[in-house]
Amino acid sequence: EVKRLRSQVHDLEQQLQRQDPSLNNTATSLASPPVSFAASPASAPPDTRLERRKEHGTLKRYWEGIYTSTALSLQTQYYGPASSFYFIGRMSSYLATALQQPHFDHHMQPNSASKTFATPTSLQRGPLDDAAVTADGPSAADTLTGTQEDYFLSLFWQSYHCVLQILDEVEFKEHYKSLWVAPGKSRKPSALVDMVLALCMQYGVAFVPRSGATLQTQVDVDGNDATIAGRWLYRRSQTLLSAELESPTIMTLQCHILAVHYLCNASFQNMAHSTLAVAVRTAQILGLHIEPPESMPRKTKELRKRIWWTLFTVESKTCMKLGRPLSAQISEATCSLPADDHELALLSGSSLAPSEDSVTWHTYNLQNTKLILAARTVYLEFHEKCAEMGPGYTAMPKLSKHALSFSRQA
User: Fold this and answer.
1) CA–CA separation, 288 vs 14, rounded Å?
2) 66, 85 in Cβ contact below 8 A?
3) Confidence grade of residue 375 (pLDDT, cut at 50, 70, 90)
4) Helices 231-241 and 250-265: crossing angle, nearest 10°?
5) Cβ distance 85 to 105 under 8 Å?
6) What's the confidence (pLDDT) of residue 332?
7) What is the pLDDT of residue 192?
8) Residue 239, Cβ neighbours under 10 Å: how many?
9) What is residue 253's DSSP assignment?
10) How far, in Å, CA of 265 to CA of 260, rounded?
11) Is 173 in a helix, a strand, or coil?
12) H helices of 100-165, where?
């Protein structure tokens, strides 16, 4: 029976190839684009005009993902085969078949803030109403004192600054100091300072145990959950950034990158992915994807390089984690990798202990970038090979067969 079915499939493939010979070699090479649209007259059939997509390799076969609802709304989103949601969907399908009863994906998905609140700044469970949408900013009780802000900012230099090297510590502290114009008064608002504080509150509150928490409340996600701590600061930062969309600065881009980490920690993966798209476009507007001019001071040039490659690695990791197409294309970037020598470490302004030999506190950023570049290459090659093996889920049995043969050899 299996041989008969394979023979029928082979015959159908042969018939399809005889009807359209171009299917034998799709996306293997890119032909030169037509000189003008005059080569495709308007009187030509629509199918004929659409066939010109093949000349640009746009009919490439992809390994299909899954559509599932991962947020508060029942609206489904797409996740690729590399995502954990794809794995959860496969497990749900297997359990439904094995147990002979329906098994929904959301029963296996983690309980998170994105499944309880519509946005990270919402205090209302469930969908937002008109009152929640038009609500004002933080109350007086939500405003931090100068001492409290200093505490949370100190957490940033001890944690995120070592792995997210996109800020100049000296310049940031000077900027923060300039916001306090009068003693006893609140500081002036700043999108960057608010975003750093929101991220550090999220990090710092995670270490504080809930008072009077029971077993039931420990697994319940509410307005006091650490993942959405600092939400008012995040909201104010985004409001301030809306005025910089037409004329962004380096500080604007730094805010977007920090916002991506805040949203990712808060479990709002789709919002983080959308913010990444804005960050990539902002970086390209600022010209960070190309090599900095020689006229720039070395400290400024290296900071621009670190920001671009940090954004590139975050974007690559996020897209691979969600199984979605990559936005930042390395073929369009001419910016070289950042340096990590001792001279640059002294110029950066951060008072970190000097390292031995050729290792500095910038070395992590450089090696992490190289690691993501290598992982990205393997990711693309692996998924391209899987797509060649068959559309959709038909590739899975073949992969399982190969995995089984490898396990037997081992």
Assistant:
1) 50
2) yes
3) very high
4) 150
5) yes
6) 84
7) 96
8) 13
9) H
10) 9
11) helix
12) 130-133, 146-158, 160-163
- Report the half-sphere exposure of 150 (CA within 13 A, side-chain side): 5
- Give yes or no for a contact between 198 and 233, defined as CB atoms under 8 angstroms apart: yes
Of residues 193, 174, 173, 169, the one with CA closest to residue 303:
169
Over residues 23-75, the pLDDT tens digits come to 454 433 334 334 333 334 444 444 444 444 444 444 455 667 888 877 666 77
**Shortest CA distance to 273 belongs to which of 309, 314, 310, 331?**
314
**Other CB atoms within 10 Å distance of the CB of residue 214:** 9
**Are 305 and 259 spatial neighbours (Cβ–Cβ below 8 Å)?**
no
Q: Read out DSSP for 297-345?
A: -HHHHHHHHHHHHHHHHHHHHHHHHHT---SS-GGG--PPPPP--HHHH
**Which two structure tokens, joined as six digits, stand for 103?**
């098994």
Give the C-alpha distances (Å, rounded to integers) separating 221 from 125, 128, 213: 10, 17, 12
Question: How far apart, in whole angstroms, are the C-alpha atoms of residue 350 and residue 111?
Answer: 38
Q: Cβ neighbours of residue 388 under 8 Å, at least 6 residues apart?
A: 61
Six token digits for residue 104 = 């929904």
Task: Using CB atoms within 10 Å of the CB of residue 11, give its burial: 0 to 12 exposed, 13 to 18 middle, 19+ buried.
Answer: exposed
Residue with tokens 């929904």: 104
Burial of 315 (0-12, 13-18, 19+ CB in 10 A): buried
What integer pLDDT is reported at residue 30 of this predicted model? 37
The per-residue pLDDT for range 135-188, each reduced to its tens digit, is: 445 544 457 888 889 999 999 998 899 899 999 999 999 999 999 988 778 889
Q: Is 104 helix (H, G, I), strand (E, B) or coil?
A: coil
Q: H or E stretch including 355?
A: none
Task: Report angle CA 319, 324, 328 to the nearest 5 degrees.
Answer: 55
- Cβ neighbors of 218 (< 8 A, separation 6 or more) are 210
Name the helix (H) or strand (E) containing 77: strand 77-79
Q: Which of 24-38, 245-259, 310-324, 338-352 has the lowest mean pLDDT?
A: 24-38
**Distance in angstroms (rounded) separating the CA atoms of residues 108 and 129:** 28
Q: Are 31 and 55 in contact, with CB atoms under 8 Å apart?
A: yes
Strand 77-79 vs strand 66-68: parallel, antiparallel, or unpaired?
A: antiparallel
